[in-house]
Amino acid sequence: MKKAVLAVIAITATMFGGPAIAQTQDNGSNWLVRARAVHIDPADKSSPVAGSGAADRIGVESRTIPEIDIAYFFTPHVAAELVLTYPQKHEVYLDGQSIGSFRHLPPTLLAQYHFTPGSTASPYVGLGVNWTTFSKNRLLNGQGSLEHDSIGLAAQAGIDFRLDRNWSLNVDVKKLQLRSDVLIGGVKASKVKVDPVLFGVGVGYRF
């Protein structure tokens, strides 16, 4: 996450270090909707299985998913963003071998600060909370499962590049705190820290 945020900051610094960014007039709307393609890169950290052996034996599949977010601007600088997608299926691995899959629904709510609203390039940061609910746990032929819910912090950094009065391009990086116990026969066998980094690219429309 640090490398991703530093990369966003470096891009922003480079842009501000050059010629002054052209200013554009805001269209007056408080609503911004974005559609993104997002790549999920899990941290794949886990405690030893059944309390013994090596750590980090359990991993979760990386994949690219569609994402929709809806932002409401309370002021030109301050906004709230709700990030949504549909339930996503992921494979789970033990020592590199698939042991089943699960689905998760991870809505995230963030408070954002936009540094240069109305500019051609407008960087922002966000902080909020992620709530992930797991379903259709099918691990170890039905003998294993994950906890039902995970609640954790979410951090965000990104830039909107305005194309015209309504449309913009968006680059966005988020880090989610997403953790779950792995249960076998109803007994905790390990704790998984999925804690994914989400790299997103998309378009936005200001109503």
Write a concise synopsis of the structure shown.
By secondary structure, this protein is mainly beta. The chain has one helix at residues 2-17; strands spanning 31-41, 45-46, 58-60, 63-73, 78-84, 88-94, 97-105, 108-114, 121-139, 144-146, 149-162, 167-176, 179-184, 187-193, 197-206. A hairpin with a 6-residue loop joins strand 8 (108-114) and strand 9.
Architecture overview:
The structure is a single chain. This protein has 207 residues and is mainly beta. It has a single domain (2-206), classed as Porin (Beta Barrel), CATH 2.40.160. The protein contains one helix and 15 strands; from the N terminus they run αβββββββββββββββ. It has one helix at 2-17; strands at 31-41, 45-46, 58-60, 63-73, 78-84, 88-94, 97-105, 108-114, 121-139, 144-146, 149-162, 167-176, 179-184, 187-193, 197-206. Strands 1-4-5-8-9-11-12-15 form an eight-stranded antiparallel beta barrel. A four-stranded antiparallel β-sheet has the order 2-14-13-10, with no helix packed on it. The longest helix has 16 residues, at 2-17. Residues 1-25 have low confidence and may be disordered.
**CATH level-1 class:** Mainly Beta
- Major sheet size, sense and barrel closure: 8 strands, antiparallel, barrel
User: How many β strands by DSSP?
Assistant: 15
Shape: elongated
Uncertain runs: 1-25
